[in-house]
């Protein structure tokens, strides 16, 4: 937890506050756009809500905004203690890094959003990954991560992948083109998923390496 007892700590707390507000702002804008679109088409708003939470980007940004809010506030709770554990925050950092990289490499060229959609897109895919990685670097205690934590972290994307395939099979709607079974077939989808999972593991190893390096440096300087 960031304690505002020094000028540096105050600056960090302000940074966390701004990052948390931007995180929830991006999610709120995106939710409004989806619900407004559904309302305009006289479609189910509940269906729009379910569609909103079918995206890995949205789920991960929600986790990011939750961690930042827990860091910003001081009210103790079991949920707050859980989210602020270094291995939990670090796992979320890996996931949001994957969101930013996957979007830039695989999805950005497929569409060109404008107006409020552009703002929501930038916040969730560019701004929040960068801000949360800065938060992880500056505010999350270092030196506690182990390679074994990767086994816990990969549960999240694996469960999401299984859910997306099941939902896509039932509704014939897939949240991302690289897991669209109807167009690509299961073999190619699993190859794509394996590539993304490999990238997830590589980023996880990088985060663990940085955690150990920063932990050793903190001990030496302390």
UniProtKB/TrEMBL annotation:
<feature type="transmembrane region" description="Helical">
    <location>
        <begin position="123"/>
        <end position="141"/>
    </location>
</feature>
<feature type="transmembrane region" description="Helical">
    <location>
        <begin position="189"/>
        <end position="210"/>
    </location>
</feature>
<keyword id="KW-1133">Transmembrane helix</keyword>
<feature type="transmembrane region" description="Helical">
    <location>
        <begin position="153"/>
        <end position="169"/>
    </location>
</feature>
<feature type="transmembrane region" description="Helical">
    <location>
        <begin position="48"/>
        <end position="70"/>
    </location>
</feature>
<protein>
    <recommendedName>
        <fullName>Integral membrane protein</fullName>
    </recommendedName>
</protein>
<keyword id="KW-0812">Transmembrane</keyword>
<keyword id="KW-0472">Membrane</keyword>
<dbReference type="InterPro" id="IPR049713">
    <property type="entry name" value="Pr6Pr-like"/>
</dbReference>
<feature type="transmembrane region" description="Helical">
    <location>
        <begin position="82"/>
        <end position="103"/>
    </location>
</feature>
<feature type="transmembrane region" description="Helical">
    <location>
        <begin position="15"/>
        <end position="36"/>
    </location>
</feature>
């Amino acid at each position: 937890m960031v304690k505002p007892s020094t000028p540096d700590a105050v600056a960090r707390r302000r940074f966390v506050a701004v990052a948390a507000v931007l995180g929830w702002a991006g999610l709120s804008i995106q939710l409004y756009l989806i619900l407004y679109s559904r309302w305009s088409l006289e479609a189910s708003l509940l269906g729009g809500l379910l569609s909103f939470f079918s995206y890995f980007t949205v789920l991960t940004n929600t986790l990011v905004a939750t961690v930042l809010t827990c860091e910003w506030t001081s009210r103790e709770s079991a949920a707050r203690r859980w989210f602020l554990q270094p291995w939990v925050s670090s796992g979320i950092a890996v996931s949001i890094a994957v969101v930013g990289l996957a979007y830039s490499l695989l999805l950005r060229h497929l569409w060109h959003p404008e107006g409020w959609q552009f703002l929501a897109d930038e916040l969730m895919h560019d701004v929040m990954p960068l801000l949360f990685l800065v938060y992880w670097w500056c505010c999350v205690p270092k030196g506690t991560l182990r390679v074994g934590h990767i086994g816990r972290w990969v549960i999240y994307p694996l469960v999401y992948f299984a859910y997306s395939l099941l939902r896509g099979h039932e509704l014939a709607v897939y949240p991302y083109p690289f897991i669209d079974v109807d167009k690509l077939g299961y073999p190619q989808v699993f190859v794509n998923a394996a590539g993304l999972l490999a990238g997830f593991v590589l980023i996880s190893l990088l985060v663990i390496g940085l955690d150990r390096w920063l932990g050793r440096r903190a001990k030496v300087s302390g």
